[in-house]
């Protein structure tokens, strides 16, 4: 779902290394740190995310957020090594948050057929906006 979103707005497809080396679910055979993160391994298009997902709205937001970081890494991958970093860590987070917020917006959830258009009432929209404000502004 997330990669389809990025390619639909003419951003990069994830690399084969991304899909083979990223961790999307918690391995059953060992303990791992499940704090979501994205990494630019700095070598031959090797980008990864680490997240122990379950199918819910929070993880839909989070995977889009983390893959937003990967898209940002890919966008400056051809720069000299010294410049292969975000202009500011806050900017990196702003990109991830913007993409994550769009991913769980009522408009996008309708496009994904996760909710029906009839579900979106003024009350629903106000609750969504209030939740975003409380999570991101306060």
Can you offer a commentary on this structure?
- The chain has a two-stranded antiparallel sheet with strand order 1-2.
- The protein has one domain.
- Helix 3 (57-75) crosses helix 4.
- The radius of gyration is 16 Å and the shape is globular.
- 49% of the residues lie in helices and 6% in strands.
- The model has no long low-confidence stretch (mean pLDDT 88).
- It is mostly helical and 138 residues long.
Number of β-strand runs: 2
Radius of gyration: 16 Å
- How many domains would you count in the coordinates? 1
- The residue fraction in helices comes out at 40-55%
User: What is the SS-derived class?
Assistant: mainly alpha
Biggest sheet overview: 2 strands, antiparallel
Order of strands, main sheet, comes to 1-2
How would the global form be characterised?
globular
N-end to C-end Cα span: 29 Å
Return the average pLDDT rounded to an integer.
Answer: 88
Portion of residues in beta strands equals: 5-15%
H/E element string? HHEEHHHH
What quaternary form is this? single chain
Q: Point out poorly predicted stretches.
A: none
Q: In DSSP terms, counting alpha (H) and pi (I) runs of 4 or more, how many helices?
A: 6
What key phrases describe this protein's structure?
138 residues; mainly alpha; two-stranded antiparallel sheet; 2 strands; 49% helix; globular; glycoprotein; carboxypeptidase; metal ion binding; EC 3.4.-.-; protease
């Amino acid at each position: 779902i997330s990669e389809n979103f990025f390619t639909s707005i003419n951003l990069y497809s994830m690399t084969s290394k991304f899909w083979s080396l990223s961790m999307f679910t918690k391995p059953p055979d060992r303990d791992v740190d499940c704090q979501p993160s994205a990494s630019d391994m700095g070598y031959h298009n090797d980008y990864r995310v680490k997240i122990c997902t379950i199918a819910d709205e929070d993880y839909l937001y989070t995977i889009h957020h983390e893959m937003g970081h990967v898209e940002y890494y890919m966008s400056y991958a051809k720069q000299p090594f010294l410049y292969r970093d975000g202009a500011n860590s806050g900017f990196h987070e702003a990109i991830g948050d913007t993409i994550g917020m769009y991913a769980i917006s009522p408009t996008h959830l309708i496009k994904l057929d996760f909710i029906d258009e009839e579900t979106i009432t003024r009350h629903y929209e106000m609750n969504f906006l209030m939740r975003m404000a409380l999570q991101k502004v306060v």
